[in-house]
Amino acid sequence: MKDQIETSSVDARKGDVVTRSKDRGWFYTDVVKDHFFHPRNFMDDESEYVDASMGMVGSPACGDAMKVWIKVDPETERIIDMKWKTFGCGSAIASTSIMSVMVTEDGGMTLDDARNLTPQKIMERLGGLPARKVHCSVLGDKALRSAINDWYRRQKRHDKIQVEQGRLIDKILRVTDLDIEEAVLDGATTLEKVQEKTKVGTGDPSCIPEVEQLIRFYREKFFGVDPV
User: Fold this and answer.
1) How far, in Å, CA of 113 to CA of 116, rounded?
2) In this predicted model, what pLDDT tens digit does every residue of 9-58 receive, in sequence order?
3) Together in a domain, 112 and 205
4) Residue 24: inside a domain, yes or no?
5) What is the pTM of this model?
6) Same domain? 127 vs 194
């Protein structure tokens, strides 16, 4: 009998895309592999997009990095074209490839809808990602929001620019909710693991209950099931 893909909250690898076979931990869906081997809307020639709005997150020197270019119909504020380039892994490539399809299909997403595009929605179109690769799916949507800000900046509509800021959680160590979100996306799914990455709560122990609540929220938001 062929292996069947399932996402199981009782499997030892909770949150992973797994098979019933005990000798295989996790693997990529056919959709992920298709978009990795045949990426859509990949940027071949940046010189043709010098007038497009561009957003970038990450740094090639530090690891994953993503650039996104968009062209927008000024009358409808719909994205009519999107190109991208990444220094990331296969999951980042597949996630951004399918995101480029999502924002341009059916006449294109409005900028407002594109801003609300989440990694979870992207992963749903991919058929899931292994839990340890979920953090790779957040580069594209962040770069997309940065490109949208660039479009509004070029249109001199500065009131529409949205700067992503974090709410201060640990006031002593200046740790924000975005820091906690990034830690969870990077695989830190318990308070102890988040503290290893951010030191949150060691400077202001009174914030720990709120930190634990945020960890639960981000686990459900990005993994769909509680991987702990």
Assistant:
1) 5
2) 323 334 444 444 444 445 789 999 999 999 999 999 888 899 999 998 87
3) no
4) no
5) 0.69
6) no
